[in-house]
Amino acid sequence: MIAKHAARLLLRTRPTCAARTYATQARECVRIVEVGPRDGLQNESAVIPPAVKVELVNRLTEAGTEIIEAGSFVSPKWVPQMAGTAEVIKHMQRREGLHYPVLVPNLKGLEILLDLLAQQPKGEVPYTDEIAIFTAATDAFCKANTNCTIKESLERLTAVTARAAKEGLRVRGYVSVVIDCPYSGKVDPVIVRDVTKALLEMGCYEVSLGDTVGTGNPTTVGKMLETVIGGSSDISPSVLAGHYHDTFGMGVSNILTSLDYGLRTFDSSVGGLGGCPYSPGATGNVATEDVLYALQGSRFHAPGDLAKIAEVGSWISKQLNRTNASRVGKALEARRERERVEKERERDGGSAESVSAKL
Ligand SMILES: CC(C)(COP(=O)([O-])OP(=O)([O-])OC[C@H]1O[C@@H](n2cnc3c(N)ncnc32)[C@H](O)[C@@H]1OP(=O)([O-])[O-])[C@@H](O)C(=O)NCCC(=O)NCCSC(=O)C[C@@](C)(O)CC(=O)[O-]
User: Fold this and answer.
1) Where is each Pyruvate carboxyltransferase domain found (predicted)?
2) Which residue out of 74, 146, 208, 278 has the highest number of ligand 1 atoms within 8 Å of its CB and is therefore the one to mutate?
3) Complex ipTM value
4) Which residues, including other chains, have CB under 8 Å from residue 3's CB and lie 6 or more apart?
5) For 63-79, how does the pLDDT look when each residue is reduced to its tens digit (9 = 90+)?
6) Residue 38 CA, ligand 1 centroid: distance in Å
7) pTM of the model
């Protein structure tokens, strides 16, 4: 009985930054959930081979990322880009102490994951210790994304959460369209609060609030957070995360605002990858590089080596033949190129002609 209670508490406890982060930093730790391999790649027009996804996860791990959403077990008819997640989680490098959540929409997705976990050779670091489930703050978006109403999705997710908990998996929840819905317009923050509460009550250790279309700004995000955590609400900011798409360039500002409201976990996407297949026009998540740069020198520490993560952003953008959507990533790309040219100049004895001949 006590063991069961302890297990339940553990499932409710969110994974922290790795211990080494606390040991070396006096600053307050901010958790970054890297969603590029899932939220980012799911929206690319091309279906990316699992090998590239594996390399992306591995490069992020090498760059010091601690939590990486590795993919999703959704219907491949709905989101073909996420086919191959089984291959990804089997072959990616998995480090003890790091976390690789995967998104599941229903019991079928969870069963696929549980089968994989059951087949995993003993003694290996588990493919994952966490699933993410998702619903929305409007029926219109929920139907477009998962073919059911909010109420139906909460019923579906209650069963998923119960089964995941029984199997020892932690569950993280998402609420989409917390500011505006592409189908039904302005969203009532009271609904965001109620859906968040329902996800927490069913057993999610944390709920990520998604500005799916990226129209939020510090005022609207602040008002939404005031309703979700203020007044008579018993929701603590410590169980919330911000998931802000950067369509209007407000992602970093919205994170800074959310820090003022007490949130300490944010989702971001290397190279600003992504968007949402059911939210036409929405661009990717706020870029991880931009978030790390914004927090530099502040009282907050976020894990990850900015220079290395920026290189990952440049690499994956090239793989996808797309423009790097991170402003910081692009600036660092330009700096690396300048440094390369300078090095070449030094090596060639400073001859301007030899350098310009090569450019
Ligand atoms: C939920 C469903 C499945 C309902 O879709 P449905 O069509 O109502 O499902 P169904 O139960 O009738 O099944 C239809 C077919 O899909 C199969 N199927 C059913 N489930 C699965 C599964 N898990 N894995 C693999 N296959 C599955 C099922 O077996 C069947 O196959 P068939 O008999 O036709 O051959 C579908 O709507 C779906 O997969 N939706 C996912 C959409 C999605 O991935 N959206 C993006 C993620 S959410 C997001 O990005 C927002 C977020 C989280 O980032 C936050 C934010 O920014 O807002």
Assistant:
1) 30-310
2) 74
3) 0.98
4) none
5) 999 999 999 999 999 99
6) 14
7) 0.92
